[in-house]
């Protein structure tokens, strides 16, 4: 409230000062041209005082508008009141100015009060003067409404932006929550399949699932994180799949040191890899390969995930996986047209998922190993293992 009053006072003071300076400068040059120069100090002091009075009156008009706004439902009352005020206030302002000018011996105002004949003063007050007064009054009214409209428009834009942001955050949170039960269902299904044939492997998978869920719960709630953190999270997922596929899966990572601190959506890679595992790795009897590549292309972060599965028959077929549809929706909401998400069949078999994001670097934070060394599998994740155990290995 205090800040709003100070802002209003500053606007009124600044506006009336500019008006006073402008009219004083014009009057001074006119007096010089006509050969009747007026004392410069008196002229500026008189004009400034006159418009400062109008500034004070403007504050009264502002309160009057708050009390009787020119709203359609109140026009029958507000219009007569404002018309009356617009007729009475300008002469009152003029008489106050010349009276004070005469008492202060201000030449520019005293001339009007003493040298102008009474008939001329009355004509000035109720002839051209009242027209100027009406213009001044309604100009102030228009200025107040323009200011209120601009302030209301700004407030509505801020509220709309806040609501849009809240809606977007809710939609993104819903999309992220969709991933967790999907992954958990698939993992529990794998564990149940192992319980009869390989109880020890099932027990190990449960242990690693616990580690992975801890990462999920302790991880950042932010919509984006560094690629390094995303790879650490992905490594936890691959540690679970290691037990399920053993030597059937080979995973390779190629990520340069200039992209490890790049911002990516949280849970971007794991759903894509999970989708590849389900539709490309699981159907293959052996020699399933996943290649993950991350590189900087100018101002763009370029990500590729390639598998050697059977590829896709059509784009519609590709939409069968929650991971792909969810990722596409999140990228669209976070980046709009600035992000590209494409799918393409690889010659000879396989699917290539390509993502291009605006390259934004986040502050680098040295991280500690989030999983025990016992779950490393050098065949599956040698690069990820080095990345997690030594955060500066790729710097």
Query: What portion of residues is helical?
Result: 55-70%
The helix tally amounts to: 12
How many DSSP E strands? 7
Q: Compute the separation of the termini in Å.
A: 52 Å
**Unreliable stretches, pLDDT < 50, 5 or more residues?**
110-115, 367-395
Going by CATH, what is the homologous superfamily of the largest domain? Histidine kinase-like ATPase, C-terminal domain
Element order, helices and strands?
HHHHHHHEHEEHEEHHEEH
Which strand order spans the largest sheet, edge to edge or round the barrel? 2-4-5-7-6
* Name given to the CATH architecture of the largest domain: 2-Layer Sandwich
Shape: elongated
User: What is the mean predicted local confidence, pLDDT?
Assistant: 75
* The first-level CATH class name of the largest domain: Alpha Beta
Could you say how many structural domains there are in total?
2
Main beta sheet, described? 5 strands, mixed
The structure class reads: alpha+beta
Radius of gyration, taken over Cα atoms and rounded to an integer in Å: 38 Å
CATH topology of the largest domain: Heat Shock Protein 90
Taken as a percent bin, the fraction of beta residues is 5-15%
């Amino acid at each position: 409230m205090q800040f709003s009053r100070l802002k209003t006072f500053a606007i009124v003071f600044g506006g009336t000062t500019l008006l006073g300076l402008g009219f004083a400068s014009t009057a001074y040059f006119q007096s010089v041209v006509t050969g009747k120069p007026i004392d410069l100090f008196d002229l500026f002091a008189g004009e400034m005082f006159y418009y400062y009075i109008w500034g004070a009156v403007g504050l009264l008009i502002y309160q009057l508008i708050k009390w009787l706004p020119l709203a359609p439902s109140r026009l029958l009352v507000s219009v007569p009141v404002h018309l009356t005020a617009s007729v009475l206030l300008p002469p009152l302002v003029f008489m106050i100015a010349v009276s004070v000018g005469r008492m202060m011996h201000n030449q520019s105002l005293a001339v009007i009060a003493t040298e102008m004949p009474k008939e001329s003063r009355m004509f000035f007050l109720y002839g051209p003067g009242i027209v100027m007064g009406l213009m001044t009054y309604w100009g102030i009214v228009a200025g107040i409404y323009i200011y209120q409209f601009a302030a209301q428009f700004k407030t509505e834009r801020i509220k709309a932006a806040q609501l849009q942001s809240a809606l977007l955050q809710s939609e993104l949170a819903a999309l992220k929550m969709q991933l967790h039960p999907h992954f958990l269902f698939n993992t529990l299904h794998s564990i149940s399949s192992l319980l009869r044939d390989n109880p020890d492997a099932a027990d190990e998978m449960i242990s690693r699932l616990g580690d992975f869920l801890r990462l999920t719960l302790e991880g950042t709630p932010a919509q984006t994180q560094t690629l390094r953190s995303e790879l650490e999270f992905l490594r936890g997922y691959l540690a679970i799949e290691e037990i399920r596929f053993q030597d059937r899966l080979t995973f390779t990572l190629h990520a340069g040191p200039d992209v490890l601190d790049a911002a990516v959506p949280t849970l971007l890679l794991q759903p894509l890899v999970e989708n590849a595992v389900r539709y490309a790795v699981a159907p293959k009897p052996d020699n399933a390969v996943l290649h993950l590549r991350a590189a900087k292309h100018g101002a763009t972060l370029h990500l590729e995930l390639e598998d050697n599965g059977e590829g896709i028959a059509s784009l519609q077929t590709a939409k069968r996986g929650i991971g792909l549809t969810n990722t596409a929706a999140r990228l669209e909401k976070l980046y709009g047209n600035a992000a590209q998400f494409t799918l393409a069949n690889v010659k000879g078999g396989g699917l290539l998922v390509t993502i291009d994001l605006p390259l934004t670097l986040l502050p680098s934070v040295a991280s500690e190993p989030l999983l025990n060394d016992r779950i490393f599998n050098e065949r599956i994740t040698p690069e990820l293992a080095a990345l997690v155990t030594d955060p500066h290995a790729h710097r």
